[in-house]
């Protein structure tokens, strides 16, 4: 068993041909050779070329005596003091003639000598010390580098979060600017191209006429040629702004304007097959039609300047600003328009109450100058009781709170219907079974906004223009009483007589077509 002189690692056996050996000097004349102290070999623990010492209790391997020269007598001339010359071990690698079979072994020995040349125990220890010191410094540099990288990553993450926050703020500002531009465009469309707003309800007042047309107050007569010429020029400019690609082109010499009127449109096929209501015994719910086969009953027709002037004179509110405004109405609590519901709430909670508390009520959004069509069976309306048929959310009419309010900019308008008898509203003989149908729109009555809705009722069968009935009026005030007598006398409620209703539905076999239009 051998032990490394540097690290103390043990080794059972050494290689067969050691390069260097260290032996003790002979002390007596009878001893021809010294005791071996160490043998050179590679240590696997410290990775150095060091000496190994033999441990006690283990037999020493046989020594090859051919590697030592015999002692020879010492003369006075050689040593000078008369003592014999000490025996010095000689290296084992003796020079032998080279042969072809020993070329490979010579190459290995040369490589081994090249690797182990100039290596000593002291040098090996110094190399190990330097190597360990270098490793420690390298670890310290690595820690410093990792700390610097961590600080750099924190700075980059902070800058990245700051940049992302600034980018989100820029996006929000851009959205706000786009919404403001869209709101301005919407207001321009609502104004219908007019750049003026009349304070008085009539366009023939002196101050307004002088401010708009440049006519003095003394010349405010309708037969004034100067005023008529200015009015014609104004109408021409309005005609250029109102015309669109969908409207038919009118020749220049005709001097015609476009006016929206109601006229009968026939349907292409039977709507009962579309909505699948022909075989339903219970007419409990009205059905909406995504693509109604019935054309809109409100289209534009050409009129002359005189007719247009008469319309403007009779309906001067059409020239006022129709853009969205904040609704001004009474804050007193109101009752729910649904008869079965007895809740009382504030006007701001009406829309939310109808959406969440009456989920069976059909809801649909509608814009201004847009027509919605539905099919309704008269039996769906209850006798002597107001029935809610549809909830329309009118857009671009009011401006409400947008933060925390989901339906702030939508005006709720209910389409309602009821059946009653002449005897209940007029006081005739109570034994008459003839019934009439009442249809109306119900909503708030703001003091600063004019809301007009048109309701038309027609037969679902083609070629029956005599069954068309249309009514344009403001919605019925939600605060007014909903008794049959009050509804029958109101100008906002349209009623269909019994004979016309029987003709439209073929004595209750067909449905009727209801169209709603807001402006």
From TrEMBL:
Q: Which domain of life is it from?
A: Eukaryota
Q: Which InterPro entries match?
A: DUF4729 (IPR031732)
Keyword Coiled coil in the entry? The reply is: yes
Q: Which sequence ranges are marked TM in the entry?
A: none
Q: Where is the segment annotated Disordered? A: 63-117
Name the UniProt key words of this record, in alphabetical order: Coiled coil
Q: Where is the DUF4729 domain?
A: 335-506
Bias (Acidic residues): 98-110
Q: What is this protein called?
A: DUF4729 domain-containing protein
Q: Which organism is it from?
A: Drosophila guanche (Fruit fly)
